[in-house]
């Protein structure tokens, strides 16, 4: 059984310096009861960090599917495309 | 960047819809530009992996002589799975070869080929460029704003073909955001396997291929899995409604790994090496989610317009056809010089008269049927009961067949929540499938 880390390792990325995924309001995440972005994201981009009381965003892993934009119950994620030519580049598709 | 140049048409997105539109317009002598945000066409694109002949043939006759295709599909299987078993149906026919019905394919190769065809026909292809907004003059769309310096481009018409996440469609105000029950998330792996092994395991000769779709075993979520044979890889994936994924709190890749363990799939996949993991949304809102298709200076095609027939896993062909219709309507408008809503309405008319509209209309009730009915019933309990019934009927253990039949029937009816519920479900399902 291959882990998500192994799966993501098969993908070629050209990572931008700035994130194309922005949490609009961390306070909204704090009060979010389900924090389901941690589960439905197919690339494990989102993690709730208890200590810091914030959602961390590993945008480098993003496979640009758009699920978080639609799935976040409070639409708290600003989702745009990475800069032209950046982000994920599939080899097979 | 050719900032001051005015084009006949700007096409956003070099997927099947965009490339089809660019190819046809360029071939007709129109001055078109095709803009793609990926490093190359297909860089951001995935699909299950089936390319149908008819719709591409209408654009490029005898394309199969040059297009990068994988295998010609001669057999299509449907498996209804419980966790350890499966009821299988399918159809294999030599007649699928002549003329060929469909091929398996991979988007990176295919999309590059198709966009290059458009380029050879005269389209100006620009890659690594994101279109971030449309430019309007009054009500009319007159161009696009890109993420390049001085990257504004102007045209008589903008063709929006930027896929399921159509940010441009939203910028245009054509459609609202999809809701979680209008899209499913598919995760996929391309798994390398020696050609001979694929041919042995799937009982193939030469260039023949097999597609397998499977229902059930998706943890009670509405969805479908697939396993397609390529030349020396397999395309394997599973897609479930985002709304169900949210409810069940399942990680999509764990679902994928779970499905891989099914004995019927495990045996076909074992020894393979995962070469690529991928994920993508599939627009599954159906007929009622289709936005207006054109307006003053714009058109919208393919996934961006929800043109996907999820019952028959058809999307790429609807995309290509909608791109072709858009191009034909623009060529007409080019002759009259009218790029208003009225002048571009030839696109809407073409879609409406075609299989694209008719097929989606036929299944127009299905989206509501699936949203309203309990997915754990359709995608878990019933497949399980069906497998149990098949098992009981085939197991020879001294119990008389008439008793077995009763047990089997009782199991299926119980799973459906009683006979009345089963009849109701059947009737609702039938209506949903037959417009």
TrEMBL record, chain B:
GO molecular function: electron-transferring-flavoprotein dehydrogenase activity
Cofactor(s) this protein cannot do without: FAD
Protein name: Electron transfer flavoprotein-ubiquinone oxidoreductase
Xref: Gene3D superfamilies: FAD/NAD(P)-binding domain
Family to which this protein belongs: Belongs to the ETF-QO/FixC family.
Swiss-Prot/TrEMBL keywords: FAD, Flavoprotein, Oxidoreductase
Organism annotation: Sulfoacidibacillus ferrooxidans
Domain of life: Bacteria
Residue span(s) of domain FixC-like C-terminal: 367-434
InterPro entries on file: FAD/NAD-bd_sf, FixC-like, FixC-like_C
One Pfam family, short name: FAD_oxidored
E.C. number(s) listed in UniProt: 1.5.5.1
Record-linked SUPFAM superfamilies: FAD-linked reductases, C-terminal domain, FAD/NAD(P)-binding domain
Keyword Oxidoreductase in annotation: yes
Leading EC class: oxidoreductase
């Amino acid at each position: 059984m291959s882990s998500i880390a192994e799966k993501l390792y098969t993908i070629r990325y050209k990572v931008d310096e700035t994130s194309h995924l922005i949490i609009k309001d961390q306070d909204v995440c704090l009060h979010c009861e389900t924090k389901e972005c941690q589960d439905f994201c197919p690339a494990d981009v989102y993690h709730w960090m208890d200590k810091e009381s914030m959602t961390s965003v590993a945008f480098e892993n993003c496979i640009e599917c758009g699920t978080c934009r639609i799935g976040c119950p409070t639409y708290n994620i600003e989702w745009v495309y990475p800069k032209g030519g950046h982000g994920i580049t599939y080899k097979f598709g | 960047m050719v900032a001051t140049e005015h084009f006949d048409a700007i096409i956003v997105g070099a997927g099947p819809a965009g490339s089809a539109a660019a190819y046809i317009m360029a071939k007709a002598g129109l001055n078109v530009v095709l803009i793609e945000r990926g490093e190359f066409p297909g860089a951001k694109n995935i699909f299950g992996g089936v390319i149908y002949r008819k719709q591409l043939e209408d654009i490029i006759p005898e394309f199969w002589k040059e297009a990068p295709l994988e295998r010609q599909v001669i057999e299509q299987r449907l498996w209804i799975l419980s966790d350890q078993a499966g009821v299988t149906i399918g159809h294999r026919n030599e007649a699928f070869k002549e003329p060929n019905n469909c091929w398996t394919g991979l988007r990176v190769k295919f999309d590059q080929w198709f966009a290059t065809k458009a380029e050879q026909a005269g389209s100006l292809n620009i890659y690594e460029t994101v279109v971030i907004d449309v430019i309007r003059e009054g009500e009319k769309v007159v161009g696009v704003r890109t993420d390049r310096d001085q990257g504004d481009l102007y045209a008589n018409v903008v063709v929006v073909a930027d896929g399921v996440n159509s940010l441009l469609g939203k910028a245009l105000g054509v459609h609202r955001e999809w809701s979680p029950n209008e899209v499913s998330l598919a995760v996929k792996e391309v798994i390398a396997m020696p050609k001979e092994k694929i041919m042995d395991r799937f009982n193939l000769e030469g260039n023949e291929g097999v597609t397998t779709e499977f229902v059930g075993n998706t943890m009670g979520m509405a969805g479908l899995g697939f396993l397609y044979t390529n030349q020396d890889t397999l395309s394997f994936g599973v897609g479930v409604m985002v709304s169900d994924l949210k409810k069940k709190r399942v990680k999509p890749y764990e679902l994928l790994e779970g499905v891989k363990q099914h004995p019927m799939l495990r045996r076909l996949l074992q020894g393979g090496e995962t070469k690529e993991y991928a994920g993508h949304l599939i627009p599954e809102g159906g007929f009622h989610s289709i936005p207006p298709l054109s307006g003053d200076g714009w058109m919208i095609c393919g996934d961006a317009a929800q043109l996907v027939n999820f019952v028959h896993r058809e999307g790429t062909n609807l995309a290509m056809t909608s791109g072709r219709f858009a191009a034909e309507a623009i060529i007409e408008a080019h002759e009259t010089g009218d790029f208003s809503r009225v002048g571009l309405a030839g696109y809407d008319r073409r879609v409406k008269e075609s299989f694209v509209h008719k097929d989606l209309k036929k299944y127009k009730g299905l989206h509501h049927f699936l949203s309203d009915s309990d997915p754990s019933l359709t995608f878990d309990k019933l497949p399980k009961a069906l497998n149990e019934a098949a098992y009981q009927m085939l197991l020879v253990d001294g119990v008389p067949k008439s008793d077995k039949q009763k047990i089997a029937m009782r199991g299926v009816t119980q799973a459906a929540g009683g006979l009345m519920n089963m009849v109701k479900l059947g009737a609702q399902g039938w209506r949903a499938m037959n417009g």
